[in-house]
């Protein structure tokens, strides 16, 4: 019997097959050393010389290298595929994965169809890839057909395929279909449960999310965290705390993910004591302090008004990731510490940590809150000149805010006109806010109308323009703004303030009387106001006339939410204790002045975090120096 050197791909004599397998094993040893397509092509040439160009095992590995995003060449992989007489399932899966990695989603699904046309059977690795392609491409009809194929080919009980189907239906917002898949799964895992819980939560269906969570017989920490995170992301902080307490009562250990979620809840509520308790648990449990958790702790301290503790924790970190540096600079910005933020940037550079896009957003924000005009302009240009970072929308927003707060409205307007992109609502909103501060009615009206059309459901945008009209005495225009809001169904955001005392968070709304100690609180407010009147306090009736939404206008100035929170704090704490208030709206002019005098008369430090920044009231002064 005679054998050619290059036999046909369609028939291999037994003796040659053994030789070929030996050659294949020997040849493939060199594949891991390939790092570029140039090296891979040389390796491919050796494969051809050895007569292995039709061998699925050899060519499958070569094709796999070509489909990697970092150094591959998908077109080259397809050329090799076309020359294979009988590509197997592994090779089809490899090409489908390649299309997916290169974000060629429709091609992934079409190649799966080609696979079926060639009568090549898919396996449990095929379907997760194709389902993922349908999910990312939002290919609803194709996704439903693939679901049918999963069942048809006998993978109805395959956990990976089923989990991907749940994720796909959640992405399509088909939550009933996602739940059907979950209910019919033979073996559910954490991915199954948490994908559906998160899907319900993303659409605001927290009751349904909780029902799914509560149906889990044995809840892992991953499932607990999914439900806690669902509450936190939907601003249901009290429910998050209640669930966390239930988790602790059931002896479920805290991990870094749960710690980060709860710290986020503490941050949003300004619940310092509870946040500090979480930090202690992290230390006691020796939880790995990764970059995300470290940043969460810094953020909690900063946003609960403890800048010194944030700095102490930051400086004690053995390793500081870029997110920790950025968070600390952002914290200094919120507290109006612009000079300190600049010094921290210099320290960051001295430690050879390269600042990024977010670093300069936070730094420019720090300059804006501190009135550092020249420094802000310098760093706006410095980031591109030194680090090649092109200014983005957020950087322009900070620059406009910086110039606008300083009264340089025309310069700010010029910046907007010369931007390389169209200004978004954030940039225009910064200029509108500056028009409110400096009472520039003409420019404010122009910008205000633009902002309202860009963000028609944001009540705050209407309010700023209405306040400008009110200041100018243009009451007919004020009425028109109110009518426009009513016609569009825009509801005003109610003002509220929260204060944490002895680990308990209490919430107050303007004029609200639902608190169990409402009678004592209102009596304390009246006493408080009588005391500061003797120190020179005069109610800012002008502020009442203008700030028609910062607290509901029908509520007397005296009973704005932060005044109620401060009164409650004075009632419940010992003399000299620091009061920490968190407010969802901008502090009005009257409350700002009142808080300064209360800090002096009662010898208290009062720290208020409003929508934009922190105000540290002490000895009759505010850390913002009335620059806010």
Automatic annotation (TrEMBL):
Gene Ontology biological process: RNA modification
Keywords associated with the record: Repeat
InterPro entries according to UniProt: DYW_dom, E_motif, PPR_At4g14850-like_plant, PPR_rpt, TPR-like_helical_dom_sf
Any one GO molecular function term: zinc ion binding
PANTHER family the UniProt entry points to: PENTATRICOPEPTIDE REPEAT-CONTAINING PROTEIN (PTHR47926), TETRATRICOPEPTIDE-LIKE HELICAL DOMAIN SUPERFAMILY, DYW DOMAIN-CONTAINING PROTEIN (PTHR47926:SF402)
Protein family membership: Belongs to the PPR family. PCMP-H subfamily.
Protein name: Pentatricopeptide repeat-containing protein At5g66520
């Amino acid at each position: 019997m005679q054998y050619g050197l290059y036999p046909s791909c369609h028939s291999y004599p037994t003796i040659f097959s053994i030789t070929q397998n030996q050659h294949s094993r020997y040849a493939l040893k060199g594949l891991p050393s390939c790092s570029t397509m140039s090296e891979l092509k040389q390796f491919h040439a050796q494969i051809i010389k050895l007569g292995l160009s039709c061998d699925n095992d050899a060519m499958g590995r070569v094709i796999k290298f070509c489909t990697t995003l970092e150094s591959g060449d998908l077109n080259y992989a397809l050329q090799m595929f076309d020359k294979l007489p009988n590509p197997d399932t592994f090779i089809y899966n490899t090409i489908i994965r390649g299309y997916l990695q290169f974000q060629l989603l429709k091609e992934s699904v079409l190649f799966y169809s080609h696979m079926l046309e060639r009568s090549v059977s898919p396996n449990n690795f095929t379907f997760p890839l194709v389902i993922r392609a349908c999910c990312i491409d939002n290919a609803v009809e194709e996704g439903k057909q693939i679901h049918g194929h999963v069942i048809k080919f006998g993978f109805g009980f395959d956990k990976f395929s089923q989990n991907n189907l749940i994720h796909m239906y959640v992405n399509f917002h088909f939550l009933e279909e996602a739940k059907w898949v979950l209910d019919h799964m033979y073996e559910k895992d954490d991915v199954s449960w948490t994908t559906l819980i998160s899907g319900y939560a993303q659409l605001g269906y927290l009751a349904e999310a909780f029902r799914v969570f509560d149906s889990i017989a044995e809840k892992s920490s991953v499932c607990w965290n999914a439900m806690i995170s669902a509450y936190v992301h939907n601003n249901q902080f009290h429910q998050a705390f209640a669930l966390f307490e239930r988790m602790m009562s059931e002896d479920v250990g805290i991990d870094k993910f749960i710690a980060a979620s709860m710290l986020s809840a503490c941050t949003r509520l300004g619940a310092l004591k509870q946040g500090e308790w979480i930090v202690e648990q992290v230390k006691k449990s020796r939880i790995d302090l990764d970059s995300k958790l470290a940043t969460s702790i810094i953020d909690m301290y900063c946003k609960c008004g403890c800048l010194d503790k944030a700095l102490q924790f930051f400086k004690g970190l053995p390793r500081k990731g870029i997110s920790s540096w950025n968070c600390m600079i952002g914290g200094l910005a919120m507290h109006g510490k612009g000079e300190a933020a600049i010094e921290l940037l210099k320290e960051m550079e001295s430690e050879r940590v390269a600042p990024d896009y977010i670093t300069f957003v936070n730094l420019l924000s720090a300059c804006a809150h501190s009135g550092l005009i020249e420094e802000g302009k310098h760093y706006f240009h410095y980031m591109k000149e030194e680090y090649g970072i092109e200014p983005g929308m957020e950087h322009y927003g900070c620059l406009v805010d910086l110039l606008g707060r300083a009264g340089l409205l025309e310069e700010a307007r010029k910046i907007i006109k010369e931007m390389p992109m169209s200004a978004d609502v954030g940039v225009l909103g910064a200029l509108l806010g500056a028009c409110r501060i400096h009472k520039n009615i003409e420019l404010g009206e122009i910008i205000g109308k633009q902002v309202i059309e860009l963000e028609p459901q944001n009540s705050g945008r209407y309010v700023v323009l209405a306040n400008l009209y009110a200041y100018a005495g243009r009451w007919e225009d004020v009425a028109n703004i109110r009518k426009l809001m009513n016609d569009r169904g825009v509801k005003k955001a109610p003002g509220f303030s929260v204060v944490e005392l002895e680990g308990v968070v209490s919430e107050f709304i303007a004029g609200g009387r639902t608190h169990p100690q409402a009678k004592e609180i209102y009596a304390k407010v009246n006493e408080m106001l009588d005391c500061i009147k003797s120190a020179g306090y005069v109610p800012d009736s002008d502020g009442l006339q203008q700030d028609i939404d910062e607290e509901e206008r029908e509520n007397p100035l005296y009973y704005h939410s932060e005044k109620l929170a401060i009164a409650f704090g004075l009632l419940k704490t010992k003399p000299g204790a620091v009061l920490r208030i968190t407010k969802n709206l901008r502090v009005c002019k009257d409350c700002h002045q009142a808080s300064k005098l209360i800090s002096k008369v009662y010898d208290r430090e009062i720290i208020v975090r409003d929508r934009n920044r922190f105000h540290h009231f002490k000895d009759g002064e505010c850390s913002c120096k009335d620059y806010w």
